[in-house]
Amino acid sequence: MTDRDTSRTLAHPEAAEIRLEGVLHALSDPVRLSIVLDLAASADDLACSHFDLPVTKSTTTHHFRVLRESGVVRQAYRGTTKLNALRRDDLEALFPGLLDSVLTAAAAEAERLAST
């Protein structure tokens, strides 16, 4: 592996290192929650550029880092593109039903807010 390859490897927590408070913190931000909702709705990994977020590029980078470091998403480079995948299996094994409950609640809230 070259130095260039090493610099493009992103640190992720092992499943055993993922903590509930970190996951809840990551999901508590509306921008990060919208990223997770999009990932949950997609069968494919999504590039960072896929997301149309109401924040600057540097803030977007911060949000993806929080999601990755908390164990909510896995990021990998494919060429120059950084792809994002929801760590659904790890989260379900550690916190059964949590992710689905949060996603269901977020969808219900969005529907409720849209109807007002």
TrEMBL record:
Presence of keyword Transcription regulation: yes
Keyword field: DNA-binding, Transcription, Transcription regulation
Secretion signal span: none
PROSITE patterns, per database record: HTH_ARSR_2
HTH arsR-type domain: residues covered: 12-106
Alphabetized SUPFAM superfamilies for the sequence: Winged helix' DNA-binding domain
Record protein name field: Helix-turn-helix domain-containing protein
Organism of provenance: Streptomyces yangpuensis
